[in-house]
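Supplementary Note 3. Input sequence used for the single-chain structure prediction.
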Amino acid sequence: MERTILGLRVECVEGDIARQVGFEAVVNAANRELLPGGGVAGAIHRAAGPALAEACRPLAPIRPGEAVLTPGFLLPNPWVVHCFGPVYGRDLPSDALLRRCYESILALAERNGIASLATPALSTGVFGYPLAEAAEVALGTVAAAAPGLTRLRRVRFVLWGDRAREAHERVLARLVG
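The predicted structure, written as discrete structure tokens, is reproduced below.
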């Protein structure tokens, strides 16, 4: 599904975040230390190669809601935006911290002249954030930021499985009837 919000193209697709050809940046669902791990972080680090972990080392640790930028190395994308999302129910208030994640990502992309980025559904894996609630926060934040974005023109939500894609599509359809 694809919709346009004030000139910003927003997409929801199923796929592999480490294989997003044609995007200037991908978002890594990072941990505090920006280390390779499982899930999204593991996939991105494996695809980018060991130089990514080396580039991350001096930037760590980061706090929930914070985003940092590194080169993409062996990824098909020049940049990786690393963001540490909240652990649902532990990092409080979870909704405000998740909103801050997307605000930080969008601001970092805008400051660095990044025109297109692909992001997973942050905090919905092992961090336990419920999909429907996460979709509301993520897409609501992107929609709210759209009027102020001048460089970023395309945001793709790369989702794992039908449930995640459908949850995001429902919210996007409601936001942009």
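The chain has five helices and seven strands. Helices lie at 39-48, 50-56, 94-111, 131-145, 162-175.
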